[in-house]
Amino acid sequence: MLIKRAPDVTPSEITDEKVYRARRRFLQFSAAGLILGPNLLVGGAAAADKLGPLKKGPYATDEKLTPYRDVTNYNNFYEFGSDKKDPAANAKNFRTRPWTVTIDGAVKRPAAYQLEDFIKPYALEERIYRLRCVEAWSMVIPWVGFSLAEVIKKVEPTSQAKYVEFTTLLDPTQMPGQRPLLGTGLDWPYVEGLRLDEAMHPLTILAVGLYGEVLPNQNGAPLRLVVPWKYGFKSIKSIVRIRFVEKQPVTAWMQANPSEYGFYSNVNPQVDHPRWSQAYERRIGEGSLLAQLTNKRKTLPFNGYAEQVAHLYAGMDLRKYF
Ligand SMILES: Nc1nc2c(c(=O)[nH]1)N[C@H]1C(S)=C(S)[C@@H](COP(=O)(O)O)O[C@H]1N2
Ligand SMILES: [Mo]
């Protein structure tokens, strides 16, 4: 990010990580005037906006972090195009302020918040999680966010609330992928859903940043979900609405192709995608593409979070509920 590299040069993970670790120390020890007050998010979308102070969240993996350059230039965000480089290029001027987050449906306290007010009550944490895409690649990302369960407790779901539905902004003027002819084929806006107990799980977070900085637009600014035991597409970006519902939501990918994408989409090496295996994955940014292809990693059940989440699916046939 800071160092200009020729496209064929392997990114130096060490440099990125060093810069990041140093920056994190800076965030922890700098004078109060230099960092943001607790839980405050800087306005605007400049990539260098720092977040802090950050407490360390649970479940961190000690695997090597995926370089910032890969995390922010190898993206799926179909609203901005379907090529991995499209979101970084096309989301540059995406406006993330003002931003309204609506909470509605089966809750005692429905509300429409300005983003800053929505985020204010929660302490930001760093959560280092693996992200495993259904396309059989993975990353390790230091997210900044807070537990979705905290939000859910505050808005008090009623007994009707069995699922949580999330919706991305609909704005074809800003999102070329949503335009009828240039569009990337999904029924917009992008919708995702979780069962209420999945949404309440302590691994599930709403993220506002990564690598100690405000979320870059291509990673789902200003607010995105991160559900690390599910395929990446469940981690919906640029959220404007969180709705509590009785029936299982129809998600964007189920709508587009129900035989390939199910509601649960738990990472499962034993249940292949109809067109490719899910048994292995390549770790983005780890050496050359050839190295990634020849030296693949075994995909772990629930993306390695089985100990934390397998109980949520006890007794369910995960081939049927894929
Ligand atoms: N609104 C929206 N959210 C989305 C997507 C998308 O196209 N639109 N892509 C998903 C997919 S397939 C993945 S793998 C992750 C990628 O997140 P990242 O680009 O931050 O790594 O975002 C998910 N969230
Ligand atoms: Mo994905």
Helix/strand class: alpha+beta
CATH class: Alpha Beta
Total beta strands: 13
Rounded mean pLDDT is: 89
Largest sheet data: 8 strands, mixed
Rg is: 19 Å
- The first-to-last residue Cα distance is 37 Å
Uncertain runs with pLDDT below 50, 5 residues or more?
1-14, 25-47
Oligomer: single chain
Q: Examine the coordinates and then state which fold CATH places here, giving the name of the CATH topology.
A: Sulfite Oxidase, Chain A, domain 2
Query: Into how many domains do the coordinates divide?
Result: 1
Strand fraction equals 15-25%
- CATH architecture designation: Alpha-Beta Complex
Helical content stands at 10-25%
Shape summary: globular
Bound molecules: ligand MTE, molybdenum atom
Fourth-level CATH superfamily: Oxidoreductase, molybdopterin-binding domain
H/I helix tally: 9
Order of helices and strands: HEHHEEHEEHEEHEEEEHEHEH
Characteristic key phrases:
Sulfite Oxidase, Chain A, domain 2; globular; 5-stranded mixed beta sheet; alpha+beta; 322 residues; disordered N terminus; 8-stranded mixed beta sheet; binds molybdenum atom
